[in-house]
Amino acid sequence: MRHTISVLVENKFGVLSRISGLFSGRGYNIESLSVGETIDPAVSVMTIVTTGEDKVIEQITKQLNKLIDVIKVVDFMEIDHVEREMVLIKVSPRKEDRIELLRVAEIFRGRIVDSGLTTFTVEITGEEKKIEAFIELVKPFGIKEFVRTGKVAIAREGVKKAK
Amino acid sequence: MKKSGAEILIECLKKEGVKHIFGYPGGVVLNIFDVLYDEKDLELILTRHEQGAIHAADGYARASGKVGVAIVTSGPGATNTVTGIATASMDSIPLVVFSGQVPTMLIGNDAFQEADIVGITRPCTKHNFLVKDVKDLAQTVREAFHIAATGRPGPVLIDLPKDVTAGSADFIWPEEVKIRSYNPTYHGNKFMINQAAQMIAHAKKPVIMAGGGVILSGASKELKELAELAKIPVTMTLMGLGGFPGANKLSMGMLGMHGTYYANTAVQNSDLLIGIGVRFDDRVTGKTDSFAPLAKIIQVDIDPTSIRKNVRVDLPVVGDVKNVLRDLIKVLKESKEQWGAIRSSWLKQIDKWKEERPLTYRAEKNIIEPEFVVEKIYEVTKGDAIICTEVGQNQMWAAQFYKYDQPRKFISSGGLGTMGYGFPAAIGAQFACPDKVVIDIAGDGSIQMNIQELATAVINKLPVKVAILNNGYLGMVRQWQELFFKERYAHTHLETGNPDFVKVAEAYGAVGLRATKPEEVVPVIKEALKVKNRPVFMDFVVDWKAKVFPMVPAGAAIDQMIFNEEKPEKKLKAVK
Question: Does B108 touch chain A if contact means CB atoms closer than 8 Å?
Answer without folding.
Answer: no
